[in-house]
Amino acid sequence: MKPLHSNAAIPGRIRRWLAVVAVLVGMALLVGFGWRAWKQIQFNQRVARGEVQVETLRGWMTLPYIERVYGVPQVELRQALGLPATGFDDRSVHDWGKEANLDPVAARRTIEKLILERAPPTGAAK
Fold first, then answer.
1. Structural domain for 17, as ranges
2. pLDDT per residue over 71-93, tens digit each?
């Protein structure tokens, strides 16, 4: 049976290019996932040190959730943000901001300040 191509080097070249492309794709995936892992490790270290960053607070969080996770009573959160003392426990921080016309940055800073006041001192046993 005759080969499809008269030049036998073409399939070898194609294989070589496919190998190069596969290696490049593999390296791109390695760099991409490695970068994500590095960022996650850095984030976890900041959390372990007790630092609170804006990115740790999310708009979907409710006041009861913040109370459970960070130990800041809802009463203090509501008072600091100028919200009603009770009700609407299922309303998110984002929704509270819209309803009460709160500045999002100022509200986050207020919540972070309350969380940091409740955080154990750096180096304390957890």
1. 1-48
2. 888 888 888 888 887 878 788 88
Same domain, 102 and 77: yes
d(CA 18, CA 2): 24
Burial of 124 (0-12, 13-18, 19+ CB in 10 A): exposed
Predicted TM-score (pTM) of the model is 0.50
Name the domain count of the chain. 2
- The secondary structure of 69-108 as a DSSP string is HH---HHHHHHHHT--SS--TT-BHHHHHHHTT--HHHHH
DSSP 62: B
Instruction: Please give the structure tokens belonging to residue 106.
Output: 């100022």
Are 38 and 83 contained in the same domain? no
Q: How many residues does the chain have?
A: 126
